[in-house]
Every structure is written in C-alpha cells, then in structure tokens.
Specification:
α2 packs across α3. It is built from six helices and two strands. The chain has a single domain, classed as Arc Repressor Mutant, subunit A (Orthogonal Bundle). 52% of the residues lie in helices and 8% in strands. The protein starts with 14 loop residues before the first helix and ends with a helix.
C-alpha cells in the first residue's frame, strides 16, 4: 500500500529553513525582538504579517539582493501576498525600492534590527 500522505515539507518552509540565512545574533529567541519592534509601528497587522515582515527585513539585511522567488520561499507567501506585504512595508517606511522587485532597508528598519541585536 502506498503512503497517501504528502512528502514532508513540500512547498512549506520549516522554521529551520526560514532561519538558515539569519545571522547568529538574530536567531531565535532573538527573532521575537524584531517582531516586537515591528509591532510598535504595525499595530493593526496580524501575527503572520509581523512574522513575515520580520523575516523579510532580516533577509534584506543579510542579503540585500533577493529575488521574489527567494522571499516567497522564505515566507511561504504567494506572489500576490508577497507584493502586498512589500507594499505594506514600503507604506510603513521600512523599505524603499531600488529597482524592479529589489528593495533596500530604510533607517527605521535598520534601527529595529539593531535594537533586536542588543
């Protein structure tokens, strides 16, 4: 009899995958510090929105040139979902667009990350 369950982790990133590229100073339990810093400016965002925003900020900090595909794999968002998340981050002043589908952290985002590393 064949196994009817899908192969483990198809299309879904485990927490280990999500934090693979995060610098040691920002790995859990310090990841929650980035999220708590974001909650101060994203008071209406859902937990998933804050969590995905934190992952994107950390990824943009560690590797400034990321493709949408890499960010989608990291967050588990669809292409439209990632676009909406990036636009929300832009609206809050966390990122600025440098070229097509490429973004850079602002001073506000850098300060949130620096506060989390303390």
């Amino acid at each position: 009899m064949s196994n009817l369950l899908p192969e483990k982790n198809i299309g879904v990133n485990t927490s280990a995958d999500a934090i693979r590229k995060i610098p040691e100073a920002l790995k859990p339990p310090s990841l929650w510090k980035v999220e708590s810093g974001l909650r101060k400016i994203m008071v209406t965002a859902s937990d998933g929105g804050v969590s995905n925003t934190a992952k994107i900020l950390i990824q943009l900090h560690t590797q400034p040139r990321n493709s949408y595909k890499e960010l989608r794999q990291l967050t588990g968002l669809s292409e439209d979902g990632l676009t909406k998340r990036i636009m929300a981050m832009k609206k809050k002043g966390l990122v600025i667009r440098t070229s097509f589908q490429h973004y850079m952290l602002t001073e506000l985002a850098t300060k949130i990350l620096e506060d989390a590393m303390v």
